[in-house]
Design a protein that fits this description.
Length: about 50
């Protein structure tokens, strides 16, 4: 598992624990939909 996959997995866990959707996460953080989508699919190379 690489860092991008680990980050996506942790975000999924936290969303479940906090009863949030990706949409709510986008609104809370102010991150664009495409950014969250890229992170969740493990396609974001800038996740460090």
């Amino acid at each position: 598992m690489n860092i991008s996959e680990a980050v996506a997995l942790r975000i999924k866990e936290l969303l479940t624990l906090n009863n949030l959707t990706q949409y709510k996460l986008e609104k809370i953080t102010g991150l664009p939909h495409d950014t969250i989508k890229s992170i969740m699919k493990g396609k974001s190379k800038g996740v460090n």
